[in-house]
Design goal:
Ribosomal protein S18 acetylase RimI; transferase; acyltransferase; Acyl_CoA_acyltransferase; acyltransferase activity, transferring groups other than amino-acyl groups
């Protein structure tokens, strides 16, 4: 699968099936909620809340969150939209302690789309946004032992920094930090 990249707008995946990778919009709130619940059910160690916590949040809270990240330079979320249910997500936030750094978070690709190139397209959008905001470096954290994600990020140019940090919710787990230019 190849990506047809543009310099001024969303990137579109081209292959037997297509998905546009773009920044979330306020009208995505219901579909983003559905994707968030899928993310948490599929990969519970990768995210900072449980399915139950997310399911308990009212729709208005999702709508407010999506509206808040649809614009601006501090936090952004990007989705893969094939024209129905959303199939991928990646977020980025400015690092408060490191002005030139965007921290990537909440990266997810629906299982049937994994290996399609969608992960790279999502991270390319985060990187483009980061550069436009004056932050030339990206950082993400991966649970130690999640070799599939680790290898995927390596293929996309991320390098293990050697830094290990405690998992924010499960003290027995560690996360490793990876970085690359935006």
């Amino acid at each position: 699968m190849t990506c047809a990249l543009t310099t001024t707008g969303p990137r579109t995946m081209t292959a037997p099936r297509t998905a546009t990778v773009r920044r979330v919009r306020p009208e995505d709130a219901a579909r983003m909620r559905a994707l968030r619940l899928e993310m948490l059910a599929d990969s519970p160690l990768a995210f900072l809340e449980t399915v139950a916590e997310a399911a308990a949040r009212p729709h208005a809270a999702y709508a407010a969150r999506i509206a808040a990240v649809a614009h601006g330079t501090e936090t952004a979320q990007f989705v893969a939209d094939p024209g129905g249910r959303l199939v991928g997500h990646a977020g980025g936030s400015a690092s408060p302690g490191e002005p030139g750094l965007t921290v990537i978070h909440a990266v997810y690709v629906t299982p049937s789309w994994r290996g399609s190139g969608l992960l790279g397209a999502l991270l390319d959008e985060v990187a483009a946004w980061s550069r436009a905001c004056g932050r030339p470096e990206l950082m993400l954290e991966v649970v130690v032992g999640n070799d599939r994600a680790y290898r995927a990020y390596q293929r996309l140019g991320f390098v293990d920094t050697g830094v290990r940090v405690p998992h924010p919710r499960i003290p027995t787990l560690r996360e490793l930090q990876m970085r690359r230019p935006a």
